[in-house]
Amino acid sequence: MTGGRESRTLHDPELLARLVEGAQRGDALAMDELLGILAPYVGRICGPVALQDGADATQEALIAVFRSIRQLKEPAALFGWARAIAVREALKFTGRRRRQSTVPMEWEEAPSFGDLHLASDIADALQRLAPEHRAVLMLRHVEGLSEQEVSALLEIPVGTVRSRLFRARRSFRSAWG
Question: Which family does it belong to (predicted)?
Answer without folding.
Answer: Belongs to the sigma-70 factor family. ECF subfamily.
